[in-house]
């Protein structure tokens, strides 16, 4: 079996030649199909023939009629099984081009979903069924719906998708048997919540035997605003980047993935919540390893904390913030007989001197009162977030010390060893 065809949707801000440039970029990165939608682009905003010369073109009717030029250039024409009034929609499309789709307004049982597809369809039509996911456990129902639809329509015609803030790992599992995998190109825009990044999906399949599916035992990382994370680049594939809101149901989500995943990295802001959820004796954890029917938790951040404190080389160190990273720093400082001053936001009154560690993620604004006086401040984030934090330290009078890569590599090495022991 071959991997699902990767579909990228053209963002609404890209028009004319910019749209063609986007399509070429996605093709180079591994996209298989480009989608354009009538709710995102006016008929004359794009050149469908030019786009179709780069990638097969999927044109989707969403509330507004499909222009004839779009249909003519299309590889497939997506039409809704049901119209806005809840009645049967028009499935008119040229021979061999129909993709019949249904976008449910609520989660459905498998029986409810199948009842929608009793309608006669051309033998060469593709079918796509999409449901909102309000709870991670719905993946079991979606997998059963996918299986039953494949029985009805055949294994090469069906796509079943979940949509929502907890849908990403479900989409990763469903993709093993889907014909199409709708993915996000990256940046700040995605066509639907829960889409995986194109680069992550391509990486999963790069170098794999194209006649087989990846091993079902997956890895992943939990966090908020983690599009910059390098974990999917350095760890064994398949590896899912599970980016959910700070108040998302991470506990339920991690439990629902026990059958399909062998381990997880955990980053801000979930290190303390998942420590409590898994019954860890630690205040914060950053690694989960499957042990049969349960998760065992670890904190390999201590390896990173050790590197940072060694590089700072100071006896007295202040720490900005008291989250999961600080827990690891506190553990290592105790081992080293080193003094730490843990400073919460309300504790900061005067300019800080000496050596310190900034643990706040860059999405969290620093207090207005924060100032440095010739202080060396370690940055334990990396990439663009690390650079933004470093600039903020400089702006406030400090000297940033970029140690995010050292922290990351040290803790990741130990994570890899632990995941190899998953059962």
TrEMBL record:
Residues that span the membrane, as ranges: none
SUPFAM superfamilies associated with the record: Aldolase (SSF51569), Aminoacid dehydrogenase-like, N-terminal domain (SSF53223)
Gene Ontology biological-process annotations: chorismate biosynthetic process; shikimate metabolic process
Gene Ontology molecular-function annotations: shikimate 3-dehydrogenase (NADP+) activity
InterPro entries the UniProt entry points to: Aminoacid_DH-like_N_sf, Shikimate_DH_fam
Name of the protein described by the UniProt record: Shikimate 5-dehydrogenase domain-containing protein
Origin organism lineage: Bacteria, Pseudomonadati, Myxococcota, Myxococcia, Myxococcales
